[in-house]
Amino acid sequence: MTGPRSFTKNWLPIDWACACYVGAASVALTRDASGVARWGWLAVAHVLMAGLVCVAPSARARGGSARFWGEWYPMFLLAGLYGEVGILTVNAGFHNDALIQRLEVLAFGSEVSYRWIREMPVVWFSWLVHWCYLSFYAMLFAAPAGLWVVGKRIAARQTIFAIAVTFFICYVIFLFFPVAGPRYAFAQAHNAATEVTPARIAQWLLDRGDSWGAAFPSSHVAASVVATGMAWRHWRKLGLVLAPFTVGLVLAVVYGQFHYALDALSGLMLAGVMLAVMQLQKVPVEELPPYLGIEGMAAAPESPT
To answer: Would you say 274 and 166 are in contact if contact means Cβ atoms under 8 Å apart?
Structure first.
């Protein structure tokens, strides 16, 4: 590495995306430094993430398991970055919720996120959609993992890029326009629909791992639709398997009072834009022969992502 150009010449778009997000999150961290507990540890985490971006190209070039981590590292950062959002926005209060609530009434005629589960406490429906909600992380990893396992490595790389960038866009919005969501703004419903096992598991998990200020747009909706859409494009059978879970999740985030209906709608819109952008990448659906290691990478035509 002899200069800036040689330092970044092997970076993929996902590396640039991660680097840009670290920069945006660092701005938010600096902005909120006086009110953030353990600010120094978050700063250290940002430095470590920047270092990970820098070593990823070398890891990919080594092949084997190092290549896997060099390709997949953004997927394993997402949960931690989501947790950081809650730390950085915890002091934001409900300032933006009032606006989203007004827009929801304007768009849907009422506060759907408050009324739906109270006016339609259907046990079987609640059981179904809450299980779909709980399948969120499995869906996220199933899309690129399925493509990776069957040898569609370029498609898997594109899918990881699309999912990660979708999350990064959501996270930046959360950091600079935090919305707590109906789970915090409204009292929780108590009826037969909220007592089913998957609904109780979802509430238990959110009580221990939710992030304040991460409601608008719904990253659950946006990322799951992008994951399913990418799977549908590159391996139709996998897309068909994921599609019912994605539909159930979109319904669950509103029915379970996790998001405003406007959050879900904005998540769908973001996913549509991301999938349209990814469609411009002309990677053949019938992928090239699987490549292993750096030799295979050299032989396989590369896509921008």
So the answer is: yes
* Residue the block writes with tokens 């590495």: 1
Report the alpha-carbon angle 202-169-208, nearest 5. Answer: 25
Tokens of 124: 């079987």
Helices and strands in the chain: count of H runs, count of E runs: 15, 0
d(CA 56, CA 69): 8
**Domain-located, residue 13:** yes
In a domain, 42, yes or no: yes
**How many structural domains are present in the chain?**
1
Containing structural domain, residue 175 = 4-289
**Structural domain includes residue 249:** yes
Does the CA dihedral 80-86-30-38 come out positive or negative? Answer: negative
What is the sign, positive or negative, of the torsion defined by CA atoms of 80, 84, 85, 87?
positive
206 close to 217: Cβ distance less than 8 angstroms: no
pTM of the model: 0.87
Residue 74 to residue 18: CA distance in whole angstroms: 7
Examine residue 152 and state whether it is found in any structural domain, yes or no.
yes
Selection from 255, 250, 229 nearest residue 240 by Cα:
229
Give me the count of residues in the chain. 305
Residue pLDDT, tens place only, 117-161: 999 999 999 999 999 999 999 999 999 999 999 999 999 999 999
156-159's contacts with Cβ under 8 Å and 24+ in sequence apart are 156/71, 157/12, 157/14, 157/71, 157/303, 157/305, 158/230, 158/234, 158/278, 158/281, 158/283, 158/303, 158/305, 159/227, 159/230, 159/231, 159/234
